[in-house]
Amino acid sequence: MTALEEGALLRESGPSPAILSVENLKQYFYRKGGRAAPVKAVDGVSFSLLHGETLGLVGESGCGKSTLARSILRIYTPTDGRVLFEGSDITRLSRRGMRPYRKKMQMIFQDPLSSLDPRMTVGEILLEPLAGNRIGGSRAERLLRAGEILGQVGLSRDALGRYPKEFSGGQCQRIGVARALITKPGLVVCDEPVSALDLSIRSQIVNLLLDFQRELGCAYIFITHDLSVLRSVSGRVAVMYLGRIVELCPGAEISAALHPYTQTLLEAVPARNPRLARQKNRPPATGEVPDPASPPEGCRFHPRCRRAMPVCKKTPPETRAIGRNLVCCHLY
Ligand code: SF4
C-alpha cells in the first residue's frame, strides 16, 4: 500500500492532519544463533491515522497486530521502515529521546488485572504516569486529578486507597482506562480491551472509550480479533494477515469487504439468527496460519484461500484502491 493510495482514502476523511504515519514498517525477530530465518511478525505495513480517528486493527491471533502496536509505541525498535508521530520520526529514538512522547502515546491492555501492579494502590497506579511525565505541580494536585478521572470512569474517589484485587474485571479495566488517559494522550492503543470481559460489561467499556475520545480528541488503534466489536467503534478498519495489511476500508462498510480473508473473518462473526448461525458454522479459512518465518510465495493467503488462482501461488498481489477500499488481492 503506497502513501499515495492511502492518502486518497484519508483525504475523504477530512482535513485533519495525521497524528501517526507508519511507513513500510518491519519487525523481525531473530532466533538464538541467528542462523534460522527470522520471524517476520510485521513485514511492510503502511498506514496513517488522523487526530481523533479510530483505526480498527483486526486479524487472527499471530497475524502481527500486537507486535505492530508495540513497534509503533517503541516498546520494540523496528527492524526497518519509519514511524512518524506528529510529523517527528521516532523510529530509532533512544529511551531518553522517547521520554517526551511517552505521555502522548498510551496503551490499554487485554487482561485488566494482570496489567495493574498488585502491590500498588489505585492511587499509586494513577499517580505514577503523572509524576513520571512531570504533570501536576504537587502530589496534592496529582491526587485531585486522579480522583477526577476515577469519577469519569465511574468509580468513587475511595478507590484511590484500595488494591486492584479488590475490584471486578470490569472495574479493573476502568482503572486501566483511567491510567492510560490520565496524561491526556493523543494516541491510545487499545489491545483487545474488552475481549477478557463479560458481554454485559463490554459495551460499557467501549462507550467509556468513546466518551473520552469525544472529550480529549485522542486517536485510537483498536486491536481485536472480533469484527463485530469494530463496527461500533472504528472510522476505518485495517485487516492484517501474516504481518501485512491486506485490506483497509471504512468501518461502516466492513460487511461489504472485498478481500477473501476479510470475508472469511466476517463469516466467523456469530449470527444472532439461528439459521444464519448454522450457515456460518464453518471455519473462517481452511488450514492453519503458515509459519511467519517462511511465509508462502505469491499471495501469503493462497494456501487457505477458497478463491485462489494459479497466479496467486507465484506473484504477490499489489494493493489497489477499489472504491473506498484498499485491497491487496489478484481478484481486483
Ligand atoms: Fe485469494 Fe488470490 Fe486474492 Fe490471495 S490474491 S486472497 S489467493 S484470490
Largest sheet: 8 strands, mixed
The number of helical runs is 11
What is the level-2 CATH architecture name?
Answer: 3-Layer(aba) Sandwich
Q: Which structural class best describes the helix and strand composition?
A: alpha/beta
Keywords:
332 residues, alpha/beta, Rossmann fold, eight-stranded mixed sheet, 33% helix, 22% strand
At a glance:
The chain has 332 residues and is an alpha/beta fold.
Write up this protein:
The chain contains eleven helices and twelve strands. The chain is of the alpha/beta class and 332 residues long. An eight-stranded mixed β-sheet has the order 6-7-8-3-9-10-12-11, sandwiched between helices. Strands 2-1-4-5 form a four-stranded antiparallel β-sheet, with helices on both faces. The two termini are 14 Å apart. The structure holds iron/sulfur cluster (SF4). The site of iron/sulfur cluster (SF4) has 13 residues, from loops.
